[in-house]
Every structure is written in structure tokens, then in C-alpha cells.
Amino acid sequence: MNMDGKLHIFFFPFMAHGHTIPTIDVAKLFASRGCRATIITTSANAPDIIKSIERSRQSGLDIGVLLIKFPSKEVGLPEGCENTNSLITKEMMHKFAFATTMLEQPFEQLLMEHRPACLVSDVFFPWTTQTAAKFGIPRIGFQGISFFALCASKSLFWEEPHKKLSSDSEPFAIPNLPDKIELTRQNLPDHLKEESDQIRAYAKQAEESELASFGMIVNSYYELEPAYADHYRNFFGMKAWHIGPTFLCNKDNEDKSLRGQEPSIDEYECLKWLDSKKADSVVYVCFGSVSNFDDAQLTEIAMGLEASGKEFIWVVKREKHEEGREEEWLSEGYEKTMEGKGLIIRGWAPQMLIIQHEAVGGFVSHCGWNSTLEGICAGLPMVTWPVSAEQFYNEKLITQLLGIGFGVGNQRWSMFMGDCVKREAIATAVSRIMEGEEAEEMRSRAKALGALASEAVKEGGSSYADLSALIEELELHSTGSGSNKKD
Ligand code: UDP
């Protein structure tokens, strides 16, 4: 507890938008309950974070930022390369991961100087459990993925069913889950498949540090995946608080659009475009902050969207060439032909604003957990197009367990993009979530789940209650009346 009686909490997100965005929301939630929230980040990441908390600060929330130096140069990365969205090769990814292990010393210094009551840190910083323990501070892990994905990855990591298969395409069931969920080896992340001792050791360290931590914050809500919320706690013995969907704390348009980085399109221009469309008529296509498709795949998407006959907003992680220069992935005159029908955003979209607009009726998504939750809360059926991370698990949750999506067919896990999905498959999948009885059923299921999410974060709701319980436990701990042990 601070001199002013406030519980001071450090938040230390991994430097990737998919991690930083929800951590900022978690920090805002704690601050809205009277805590002091301090977000630790690096100088290149700080400006966007400061912008996204500015309005909360002005409204009186006690939320700030402290800086830590990122050793880009020391590991051979270009200066200012401090976020995964500027990594374009696997080699850069490895250097980046190594650089994060060098943050331990300066981070320890910050803990020593500020002595917060608690640390909420990314599971990609497994060493923080020990660092926090040196100061008697409880460390809570935050990964920002679903209970379902947490259970699936734990089960795969410890049981290794994929090691007993004869081929990459042979289906196998994930052991010990409440439902029969089948995957193939090609759906699995590299760290499960690679034999490299170093990667395996790092993954093991992350697992062990989760177990040794005070508990885990999960950006989900009980009503979405009750069997897996229970399974994670009861079967795997994890202490966890579900407090999501955390992004629902952003109520007005400015907060919704200032997430991650400055949008590349004026938000009002974008909303004006959507205002002119009929309800549920536009499909939104976006693959998160990391996936980066090659020209051939982008061409297939352009052609597939045109063939679907649906109106769309498509976010492409490319810069626009200067006037007059052609973009190899787009056929000549494409945008002119599609004017008024399809809007391409190059760079960063105000995603939350877009998908909550009533004109948007479907979402083609890479199944990153933030996008998935945002889509569910907006009541959108989804075309699932998983690429990397835990996205293939999320696809199963969306299509098989929740029944609100339809897979486009990519089977190969890859850091940036998988198999090239053809235009016909894209057009079929888009039509299937946008029109007909099946689409309507998926949409009404998604809307019902979205309504449950709104209830969960309201006073009296399950996520609201779990956050209250966590704060209470931390207060007890900081006054010395609680214990650092798991129940
Ligand atoms: N996002 C956004 N604009 C974009 C791309 C992504 O606002 O153009 C946001 C999106 O709303 C989500 C986050 O970035 O909150 C991406 O997280 P997710 O877990 O979906 O995917 P990742 O980027 O980690 O692969």
C-alpha cells in the first residue's frame, strides 16, 4: 500500500500490440477501482501508450508510464526496433526475444526504486516471477489469451501427443480437455515442434514461472467458456481471475480509436463510409498486428472479396506507394472499380470503432484473442483464418464450441503467413458468414454472447466480481494479512 493508501501496481506488457493493448485496459480497470497503475515500457513504445491513457488521466485515474531502455543495438536490431510489429524475419524475432531477457537488470532497478505492491507482467517475461520475489512482491502473470487456449497449450506442452504421429496431417485429440478437440501437427506452434533445447527450455521456464506466480489474470469472461474456466483452475490447479473483456472499459469513440497506434485513416471518414451502408452488410477483414501476407496472398484476398459480392473494409499491413506507382498485389484499377464498395486501409485501422458499427456484419479474422473477443462482443460471425501463436486453438473455440464461425482452410502454423488460401475459398467463406440461414444463426449466437460479455463487466457481473476479489486479496497481501500461497 502507498502512503496515500492506494494499492500501487506495476504493469509490464510484452512489446507487441496484441499484448500491450489489453494490458493498458487492465491497468485502466485497476485504476478505475482506486489503484495506482504504472505501465512499464520502452521509449519507442511510450508515445502510443501515453496517448492511449491520456484521456483516462484527464478523467482523474491514477495511471502513468515509466521507461526502461530496450537494448536493440546491443542485440543487432536497428535502433528504435522495440516492437514485434517491426520484425519481419525469424532471425529478428530471435534477437528481439533475446533482448527482452536483458531487461531484467534495469527492471529490477525500477522495482527497487518504486516498491509497488504487486506486479502484473507478461508471461513472455518468465524471469519476472523471481525478480518480484526478491522484493516480496506478488507477481501475477498476464498472457491475454482464452481459458480454452490456456488449457490446450498446457495439455499439449506436458503430454506431447503430436510426438506420436506418423504425419503432419494426421488428426489427434488434445488430451484431457472437456471436449474432443482435434488438431494436426501442422496446426501447432514451432516451440512445441522444434527439438531445440533452447526453445524448449524457454517454454519450460515460462510454464514453471506461471505455476510459481501468485496467479493469472485472464482476459475472458466466465459465461463464454465456463467448462474451460473451471478446467484451468480445477484440472491444472491454476489460480486465475477472469476480468474481461477488458476493452469494454473504453466507452467513447476516441478511446476506442486510440489503441495500439495512430490509425492510418481518419476515424470520422471511416465512420462516414460505414454510415452510408445497410446494417450487417459490410465484412471487415483484418489479420492483427503481426501477420504479414505476401503479394500472392494479398491478390487472392482482393479477388476473393470482389467475387464474394460483399461490401468490405480490408486492412493491409502495407504502406501506400507514392502516387502513380503500382502496387504489385493489386490489379490495375481495382480500387476504382470497387469505389464505394470496398475500402482498403493500409497500415492501422481503428478496429474497435469499425467492428462495433452496425453496418459491419461479419469479420474475417486471424483469430488473435483480442480480435476474437472484440468480434464476439460486436456480435459478429467470423471467417477464421488462423496464422500463428495460439490462433489455431481459438479457431476451434469459435467454430466448434461457440458455433459462430467458419474456417477458410489454412492449416499451416507459420510466424507470418501459412498456406496461400485461394480466392474461391475466400469468396465462399465470406458469403457463408454474411448471408443465409446459417449466417443468421451464427450472428444471433454471437450477439447473445456479446450481451453476456456486457453483463459480465457490469457491477454484479462475473468479471467485475473477480476483479473485486483480486484487489481485495492484493490489499490483504500488502498489509501483511494475506499469504503468497495458492489456495
Ligand atoms: N488492431 C487495431 N488495428 C489494426 C490491427 C489490429 O486496432 O489495424 C488491434 C485489434 O483491435 C486488437 C489488437 O490490435 O485489439 C490485435 O490483437 P490480436 O490479439 O487480435 O492479434 P495480434 O496482433 O496479437 O496477432
Automatic annotation (TrEMBL):
Its EC number is 2.4.1.-. Keywords: Glycosyltransferase, Transferase. Pfam families: UDPGT (PF00201). Transmembrane segments: none annotated. Gene3D superfamilies: Glycogen Phosphorylase B. InterPro entries: UDP_glucos_trans, UDP_glycos_trans_CS. It comes from the Eukaryota. One of its GO terms (molecular function) is UDP-glucosyltransferase activity. PANTHER family: GLYCOSYLTRANSFERASE, SCOPOLETIN GLUCOSYLTRANSFERASE-LIKE. Belongs to the UDP-glycosyltransferase family. This is Glycosyltransferase. It comes from Ziziphus jujuba. The lineage of its organism: Eukaryota, Viridiplantae, Streptophyta, Embryophyta, Tracheophyta. The gene is LOC107427035.
